[in-house]
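Lab channel / #folding
Pinned by the channel admin:
"Please post every new chain as: sequence first, then the structure tokens as a reply. Keep commentary short and put observations after the output so the thread stays searchable."

First post following the new format, from NK:
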Amino acid sequence: MTYWQFRRRLYQHALKQWLDSLTQVGTGIVALFPMAMYALLLLPLLALGVLGDKDAAGQSYFFTLWGYLLLCYCWISMQKEALTGADYNLYDSSLPVSPGQRAVTNLGLLLYAANVFIAAPLVVLLVMVVSHAVELVTTPIAEVVTQLFPLTALLLLAFYYCRSALGTQRPWLSLFLLPLVVMPWLASLATPAMCLIVVPVAILIERWIKLPSWPLTFLPDDLWRLFLQQDLSTGRPTILRGVVILLLLILGAIFVQHISPDARGAASAFFAVVLGIISATKLLELQSMRQRLELYLATLPVSSSSITFQSLGYCLFFSLPFIVLMLLFSLFDLSHWCLFLLIYVATQAGILLRPNYYLAFPLVAGILVLVIFLLV
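Reply from TO:
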């Protein structure tokens, strides 16, 4: 067995364990979308139609670029332990492998894990260069740069975020704070070229300014601290939930912009239902943790009903950043917010009363709302 085969087998084994753990934790995302992990890989292919067009609408280009790079970073970040072989580091370091071979293997595994995020823009870029080789030679250099700049910049940014996901650097500015700050001015300011220039500038700033670490000592010794420590120690379900919600908001913003005004209400209602279910299923993680720590929780001077109320409160607190994001995206009016709240409450009621059939509760609630809407 070669060193490459050894590392790839470690990666595949760790990835299988991770997917099994997601199902066991019961994040609700895997239960709701059995093919979600595979469908996520189709999004980059759909996004290339916008990201490869230098004349695309600025607002649509910005949302598409943001979603592409965010998904790229989180996709590799969730596979970090599998790619680095964290459980076998001591054995791996003892193997007689040269630093160059180890570096090449690490790069190959990264590209293997990134797959379409790197391969798709690279293939499209190569096809453009090969099929228009004669035109590129006779065309002025400025026009050639203009034509190839979007895909070339996208390829470099995607590769950077894939490498960054394996390190300790967090893209707190370029992928999180900056898009939210500039969102109100997108319609008048954003162009494809500006988006592709601003992101590297934000990367340089965030590499210079480090985020401070926040200890948990300021939190009281109660269940909320236990819940938060659980989220920090097993962050993959939390990351997956946040990524799915943010991608749904980005897709919703793009989708709503390109449909007729008469259909926007129904589209927003659909996204309100899906986001309500995904936000509420955070309670599944807490209920699973409650079962695992049943003996420990029984020793605490806290009643079962108090644990349930604190779990519901923590779920609401956990959902507040996502609610703020929904407000920033302006996808919902008052009726959609009422629908979102109804689905959120119905889903959590189902998790508490019938955890094996909890999806039936928001489904019934949604049908009742539809019937009332048709009758009125």
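NK: Residues 107 and 154 are 19 Å apart (CA to CA).
TO: also worth noting, Confidence is low (pLDDT under 50) at residues 25-35.
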